[in-house]
């Protein structure tokens, strides 16, 4: 499946470095990384992808091997391999699976607040099913949509996130593949078995939110086994949405990772 892609690059067309690829989290979209893409596009070719069932990409059932295949197929079509891949949450799991299944396609890897293994998204499972069961009215403006979503979402930031996935007006509709997401939540929460001995040898940075519980010490053995050259950094003031809650600190860690040589020559 070819994914909808937002591409930005330097005006001078410098392609001496591997492109940078951004993969968003559950219920997100490519433009969630817009701040970072604009900053990095001054010197790098950048591509932000809408994962399947999100943004402008096609819909279908989801699991991480399939989503990693989507990303690989899309980057091949854009002649954007090998790439430095940055993924948050569900996008981080997809990025890890891409690195494990196609190690030559991933120059280096940054995973934001998620670990390789089952976990995370517990509240999202119920949210996906509640939203899928909520009948759409004949008309919605923004105020009406906020009230409509408020029936199942009490947290304003989450409500704002879901508003971005609604097409308002007459006969409103979900832009995302909500039914497919709800049906795939077990796979999204889960993590497929990895063949013993399979690992990614490239440089890997995990960035955790200090107020998040998505990366725990219990995850470290799997992180070391699958990504033996990983490093873990924590942004203490951030939660799970680490890049949105502490953008300057997140950008500094990414830039430091790149400046240390892990962003490397193409």
TrEMBL record:
Keywords: Hydrolase. Signal peptide: none annotated. InterPro entries: AB_hydrolase_1, AB_hydrolase_fold. Residues 18-246 form the AB hydrolase-1 domain. GO terms for molecular function: hydrolase activity. PANTHER family: PROTEIN ABHD11 (PTHR46118:SF4). This is Alpha/beta fold hydrolase. It comes from Komagataeibacter medellinensis.
């Amino acid at each position: 499946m070819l994914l909808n892609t937002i591409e930005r690059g330097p005006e001078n067309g410098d392609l001496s470095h591997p492109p940078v690829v951004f993969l968003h989290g559950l219920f997100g979209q490519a433009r969630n990384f817009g701040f970072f893409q604009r900053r990095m596009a001054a010197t790098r070719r950048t591509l932000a992808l809408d994962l399947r069932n999100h943004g402008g990409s096609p819909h279908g059932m989801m699991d991480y091997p399939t989503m990693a295949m989507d990303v690989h197929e899309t980057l091949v079509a854009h002649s954007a391999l090998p790439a430095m891949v940055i993924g948050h949450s569900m996008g981080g799991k997809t990025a890890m699976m891409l690195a494990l299944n196609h190690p030559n396609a991933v120059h280096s890897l940054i995973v934001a607040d998620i670990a390789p293994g089952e976990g995370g998204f517990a509240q999202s499972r119920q949210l996906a099913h509640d939203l899928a069961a909520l009948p759409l009215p004949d008309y919605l403006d923004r105020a009406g949509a906020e009230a409509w979503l408020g029936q199942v979402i009490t947290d304003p930031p989450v409500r704002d996130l879901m508003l971005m996935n609604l097409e308002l007006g007459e006969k409103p509709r979900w832009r995302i593949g909500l039914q497919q997401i709800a049906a795939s939540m077990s796979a999204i929460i889960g993590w497929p078995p990895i063949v013993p001995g399979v690992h990614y040898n490239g440089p890997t940075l995990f960035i955790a939110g200090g107020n998040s519980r998505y990366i725990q010490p219990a995850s470290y053995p799997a992180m070391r086994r699958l990504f033996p050259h990983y490093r873990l950094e924590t942004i203490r003031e951030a939660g799970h949405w680490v890049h949105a809650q502490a953008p300057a600190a997140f950008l500094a860690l990414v830039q430091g990772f790149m400046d240390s040589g892990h962003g490397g020559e193409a």
